[in-house]
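Possible regression after last week's pipeline update?

I re-ran a chain I had predicted before the update to compare outputs. Posting the input and the new output here so someone can diff against the archived version. Not blocking, just want to make sure nothing changed silently.
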Amino acid sequence: MKRIFFLFTASLFFLACSNDDNGSGALQELKIKKYTSISFDANGNQDGHLIEYYFDENGKKTKDHIIDIFGDYEWNSSYNTLGQVAKKSRKYLNYPVDIVEKYIYNEENKLSYLFMDQDSNGVYEDSLRFTHQTNQIIAQWYSPGDVKKEFYYDAAGNLNAINYIGDLGVVSEELITYDSASNIMQINFTSGSTQHDYKYEYDENTNPFYKEFHDYYFNTVWRDGGLLSKYSLFFSPNNITKIIFTSSEPSENYIITKNTIYNNDGYPISAVVKKDDVLIEELIYEYY
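New output (post-update):
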């Protein structure tokens, strides 16, 4: 009950602020300031896991604060004058920085290298080299040298396929389909005999994370990106209302629903997320 009251009160507060700022009735573009995700266990109790994203006034994510099974830690990001990420660093609570990642761009201002200092000692133990072709980006790992990611784009700049390549060829493949509004409607993941299918449903309201993700993909993702399905918070211009996950192993199937409250400008201010009708997350959005 306290939790529901908190979300309701927060929603009223942000709606009040929005009403004060929009006396003319015209919608305005808002910049996200902070995003908070609070996780819950199967009994509806907070499980101690927390995600907080902090943004500057240009929409750049400057800090990720995370509490999970690995501990309490943060990732800090800095950017160049073009808005491209220049450095990311990780530190655990009460400890010094332990990982530093440096991003290098070529004369065309395209990402060229990502160097990884895993011990924050000035020595780069690994790296990713990025090459750019028409509608394609290849991210090649230094070690092991035959491992790479291939990203394929359509003419509109939408990512429509990702291949993960190992020593013996394609290890996994993600195929992405869109609707006419550039929302991702489906991701088909295949790795050997394993198949995962993600289907997404949306409302028509503004996703405050989309523009940065679309324009600066590697600002948001970690290293070579991992699985695109991890970034459903960011990857579409509208906000997800439902995710239907279907696996080649039926016992893994699930449905996630997201019930979002919006301000008068159509931006999310809070949300309740359930997995198979069981509460798993509550979300709070704050704006400049």
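Follow-up from reviewer: compared with the archived run. Residues 12-23 have pLDDT under 50 and may be disordered. Marking as no regression found.
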